[in-house]
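Ticket reopened. Same input as before:
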Amino acid sequence: MSGVTAGQLIDFTYLIAAVLFILSLKWLSSPITARHGVLAGEIGAALAVGATLFNPELVQFKWIIVALIVGAGVGIPLGLVHMTAVPQRTALSHAFGALSATMIGIAEYYVHAPKVTKFGMVEIGLEVIIGSLTFTGSLIAAGKLQEILPQRPITYRGQNVVSLSVLGAAVILALILVIHPEYTKLFPVMVGVALFFGVLLVTPIGGADMPTVISLLNSYAGLSAALLGFVLNSKVLVVAGALDGSSGFILSVIMCKAMNRSFTNVMFGAFGQVQAGAKAAGEEKVVRSANAEEAAAILGSANKVVIVPGYGMAVAQAQHKVRELFDALTKRGVDVKFGIHPVAGRMPGHMNVLLAEADIPYDRLLDMEEINSDFPQTDVALVIGANDVTNPAARTDTSSPIYGMPILDVDKAHTVMVIKRGMSPGFAGIDNPLYYLDHTLMLFGDAKAFVGNIVRELGGGHG
Amino acid sequence: MPSDFISNLFVFILAGFVGFEVIKRVSPLLHTPLMSLTNALDAIVVVAAIIIAGRHETTLSTVLGVIAVAASFSNMVGGFLITDRMLRMFKTGKSKKS
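Engineering reply: fixed in the latest deploy. New output:
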């Protein structure tokens, strides 16, 4: 074995890292092996970073070390955020990933310009456009999730025409650069236009569509990393980018299916505008309400209870009170499960993380397909802060905007209880016929306080 | 068309397939950790950023490289950290006794 160069050894380390990344995701398939997956990913990443520091092309280390320290200084607090802040943290990390890929693409262009091949320019142009729009788009998404920006969709007439024209302009600028790579002054213009398109792309999207958007941005961030791998001819980037991209893509498809909508509809449909209210204003409908004492009596005498959490539970920070309710009912011998809709919350899996944080065993958390057949044998379905995902109009009312969307069939339970602040419509602005059913009881109040009161009535509170 | 492109495309398509097969087996229970883990893995772009920053070709490329190192390394550190924190919370009824 003569003539093994340092470069080959580094490449071999990258290969090991790529294999560890695949194993990392494979082990994530089950909660039992999932933490090994994180370890495999960490070892792979550490090997790859360590090997890179031996690259003979590196001539100065001072700024690399400063940047690594700054990165760790930003990354550690972002890794320690409260679980309720995970959606905005995730959006912000998509922005950082895209920023990094974009910066490298821009640097690569200026190092070689104007001697960039036409083909190389196609790769760089595509990479920088996708990276830029993902960067600003993710920042807007993070701003909406953090509620710095309004969660309601912001729309105006002719929006889609304007947005697509801006994207078109970025693509045309890229094409001009492919033909004339020496027009270096056009490059920053292209970057600016692509950054602007990212803003236009996410601004009109409402809070309830965030699970899809965040998945789609995940996919774009992966794609930009993979394209960067093409630009730099780095296989480990291509592999990691392809894994991240396919993950984001699969999640986007799952989210779209769970809302019975297409990608184009999410991106350009601007859901969430309050319906004209024509039907709601018509007749005065009757709802039955109950207080905590009555709710506790019904729950306490039930055999099977399914709790359906939604974004409202996260907003009210009610998950720990819900755990107390779970404990109090379980102690009385009630079988308590959780039914979780794929788009409940603001990102895929959001509810599972919050409930796991509150120490609810994960074998009690069931997804929509697993739980739906249980509802007809369920004594009480308790809906906490979920709305559209329980709306039976999705099954029956062809005129409803959410018609065809798969829902949790809570209306099939013997008794339905809904904890809600008031009768205002949900994020999608659609009235929910569930609330007017004969076997539905509305529990008006703040989710955290109301659940706390039920727990006290059951006599199972922790003080 | 450069030959590098074909070999990169080869790797991209195959890795995409592997990713698809592996990730579709991830339970919906773990979709949030999945997203933060893939984010941390994606932060491997830090290796390209280190090379751009360390080659010190132009001031501009070094500045951009340094920003890229900081941004991607923060994702790497933060992504693994939060994924592990989340996964530690997932317990079954039996192991819950503490």
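Residues 29-90 of chain B form one domain. The mean pLDDT of chain B is 91. Please confirm and we'll close it.
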